[in-house]
Amino acid sequence: xxxxxxxxxxxxxxxxxxxxxxxxxxxxxxxxxxxxxxxxxxxxxxxxxxxxxxxxxxxxxxxxxxxxxxxxxxxxxxxxxxxxxxxxxxxxxxxxxxxxxxxxxxxxxxxxxxxxxxxxxxxxxxxxxxxxxxxxxxxxxxxxxxxxxxxxxxxxxxxxxxxxxxxxxxxxxxxxxxxxxxxxxxxxxxxxxxxxxxxxxxxxxxxxxxxxxxxxxxxxxxxxxxxxxxxxxxxxxxxxxxxxxxxxxxxxxxxxxxxxxxxxxxx
Length: 267
Hints:
Layout: H1 2-19, H2 25-40, H3 44-60, H4 68-72, H5 83-102, H6 106-129, E1 137-138, E2 152-153, H7 155-178, H8 186-210, E3 214-216, E4 223-224, E5 228-229, E6 232-233, E7 235-238, H9 245-266
Antiparallel strand pairs: 1-2, 3-4, 3-7, 5-6
């Protein structure tokens, strides 16, 4: 019965996102499969955190500002999330759901909180950070960068990342209570989400500034993640060719999960 409920709930949410053009068809199918597993193999704790990330990031993606359309042209993937993006953001969390179903351990829960805090923090930092009136600076050198540049951070984006991670941690406390799971400290879970989210988000920026695959527009000369810009195919600029945006997201999530777990073990 839990699997059926999970499938219906996931279909409802993913279907609405598809109609709102937040998900492509492949993204919708991936989200349905993922949501079914989250609820069927887990409970409201796992499924609820996934929903908080998905709903909040979908709403923030609708924020409009003067240079958003221009910035989206530089990203590898924009607008409607496809299956690759869905699994890059929620696939690792799904692994922890399944591992916990097989061998229940509190460690899986902290790893999961850190992973979901990372993808939430990164999304919030990107969507809200681009609203900053001050240009971002390189996470490594402090040099001023163009808005939306990989490896760039801002005060507003950092605050948004902290808020997103803290939300996941705080929400996990409430969802644990709803699910009838053993009591856990509200402050500890919030701290795990906050530190895991920030660690993952900054890892994403560091990878973006160093080894992420980046291309250069042959028309305007701008460094971009996308394969086309200004209507032309781009050329390779720097980074490891396998270190795509999805790979960066996955690695950052692992770091965020590890930091959240360390936080849980220490306190």
